[in-house]
Design brief:
229 residues; alpha/beta; Undecaprenyl pyrophosphate synthetase; globular
């Protein structure tokens, strides 16, 4: 059974370029696509859905104009998310992992913290946003935390997992990457995807809809994960 799905939504800017539109309109279309996928995931009772909203590079290396628009888009969407009745009705816990506390402006941080506070005691379904996230930085920080402990604990899988940003998330069962570039980026959830099934698609993220989401799930449902056996 699929318990945890992680999404790498690639292709917003290429989607806009193909249509002769500014890149920021691609990001807005990407938000609309996510909304449709979120509704379907909740209806399918997917227990954990993790969405890579922005890499660390997205907010440190792109133009100030594009980054500013991304921040305003996040603020707008998370305000709407805060007001959604489903958060309470479906007992959805929303969390945010990454360097957003360091790299996001205060107004966006305030909205994020409000969503976290509102949903902190919910337990039925879990929605996680990776913001200013890098899997490499996540692992580096975990190692720094481990070696800083005195005495240094035994280094095993449980120790590593306990120090990751994703320490409260279960292993990822299915990773979906859109955009036609089937490669891993920045060590994406490297510990949690060790035994994942993967779905790569040519579809650019704004065009990725519920039908293909269902197809990706059906493609791996019932596939036996042998874990090297």
């Amino acid at each position: 059974m699929i318990r945890h799905i992680a999404l790498i939504p690639d292709g917003n800017r290429r989607w806009a370029k193909k249509r002769g539109l500014p890149s920021f309109l691609g990001h807005r279309a990407g938000v609309e696509a996510f909304q449709k996928i979120l509704v379907m995931a909740l209806d399918l009772k997917i227990e954990y859905l993790t969405f890579w909203g922005a890499s660390a590079d997205n907010v440190t290396k792109r133009s100030p104009e594009e980054v500013s628009f991304l921040f305003s888009l996040f603020e707008e969407y998370f305000k709407k998310l805060f007001d959604r009745m489903e958060l309470t009705e479906r007992q959805i816990k929303v969390d945010f992992l990454g360097r957003w506390r360091e790299l996001f402006p205060q107004n966006v941080q305030d909205v994020i913290r409000a969503v976290i506070e509102k949903t902190k005691d919910h337990k039925r379904q879990h929605l996680t946003f990776l913001l200013a996230y890098s899997g490499i930085e996540e692992m580096e920080e975990a190692i720094r935390k481990i070696v800083a402990e005195q005495p240094i604990p035994v280094i095993d899988g449980q120790t590593i997992k306990r120090h990751l940003w994703t320490k409260d998330l279960p292993p990822v069962d299915l990773v979906i990457r859109t955009g036609g570039e089937p490669h891993w980026s920045s060590g994406f959830m490297m510990w949690d995807t060790a035994d994942s099934q993967f779905y790569f698609t040519e579809t650019l993220w704004p065009d990725f809809g519920p039908e293909e989401f269902q197809k990706a799930i059906e493609g791996v449902s019932g596939v036996e994960r042998r874990f090297g056996k």
